[in-house]
Amino acid sequence: MSSPAFADPLLGAALYADVQRYDSFGPHRYGSPGAERALAWIAGELESAGLKVSSQPFSLARQYDFEAATLVVEGEKRPVMPQWWIPERQATFALTAPVAAPDSGPAPGSFVRLTLPFDRRVWMELNALRAGGYEVSAICPMGDAWTAPHEIIDGIHIWRYPAPPETRGFASYVWEFLYCWLQTLRLTLTVLARRGFDVIHTANPPDTFWAIALPFKPFGVKFVFDHHDLCPELYLARFGTARRGSLTCRALEWLERMQFALADLVISTNESYRQVALERGRMSPGRVVVVRSGPSRERFATVRPVDAALRRGRPFLVAYLGVMAPQDGVDHLLRAARHLLTLRGRDDVSFTLVGAGDSFQELQALTRELGLEAQVHFTGRVPDAEVESILATADVCVCPDPLNPLNDVSTMNKVLEYMAVGRPIVAYDLREHRRSAAEGALYAQPNREADLAAKIQELLEDPERRRRMGAYNRQRFLDVMAWEHSAGELLRAYEIICGPKKNP
To answer: Which of 410, 367, 403, 372 is nearest to 274 (CA)?
Structure first.
């Protein structure tokens, strides 16, 4: 850039000066001003070297990492590898090369995935299989900015149907199950006609997609059950354990048995779910594989800097990230916050709650009822950059999931994201919380909101312990819990039903 174009781009002094200049623009990701300044500088340097530079502004509704592009130099096409990350909401970037979709290439088989909700695990699984050489189609509800009935993202064909309204009671849950099943069946037939498939891979809830796979099994199509939730326990967590043994609960247990009975392969998210598959599902051990959830190391390659403004004028910030439904215990956190702020007399703590769900409005009403509006802030769903800044600034992150048969054996994604940013955790003492966070959390007595508040206060008053636990969590995430440690297990699981991948 400082030297003539392509003459000696790696000359030591010139290269060092260019790196310093590039770094001076500030952060370059997520459409930041630094990225725009860097692009303008690069374009100016290319023009000063005699090259013609043109731009093509465009907007995208989710993150993309371009796989291939070309740059024309004096009539000769040269490959370039841009690495730009576009925000989930919207952004405009100047490009000097067309965006090209990669050739799908040979694949040992193809499969259709029947659910793709607001779920990072699902998207990472799809990309891992795509990278492993499989042709991938996905079926899911529409949501947020993802409203196209069909599109191709990263080589993955995605078909979508209009999402059902949010559920509020038992009747709406029944309707949601039926509606999603019928829409998924319709789009499965569409995928069959347009692309075909060798494997049907479903994630629950609901436990009804075995019935879609059933008519295809005589033709050699394999059925993979990706076990995300214990639906009978989920029902009891939402509507009360008094309904155990009810007709609805027994129906959910039967549907779960059918998922296991039809499955050629079960993917469990942790060892607790694997035991359910072996004992309740009577699955052969060789056909149940644990593929843990976890954020990717790439996403959390670095931890964002602390942003003191997010503490909203107070010395400390306590954060929650996740779904806000009845079984998630956010009401426990709000009552623990009242105990900490009112009964323990603290006025130096802000609470930020990130996420949304069926209970969002009720939780906001509870906040007003408890008189916590000044201290508690609900963000709703926000872009990744904002989530990561909030978590990186938090002094303590909380997992208030109460003890019940569902939560005790479920791996909570928020625990892993807290670990990824190196934050200390306060959580109720649940089996899978300990398996995930181990020594990186302070465990309160289950369902005791006063003890949850006491553990938060204990960490707030001990900065060295917070630092030590945060460092432990960050290292444990990188060494053990990141998605990259699980992606290989997913591909090995597919070899059970598809055979070893053949080199093209």
So the answer is: 410
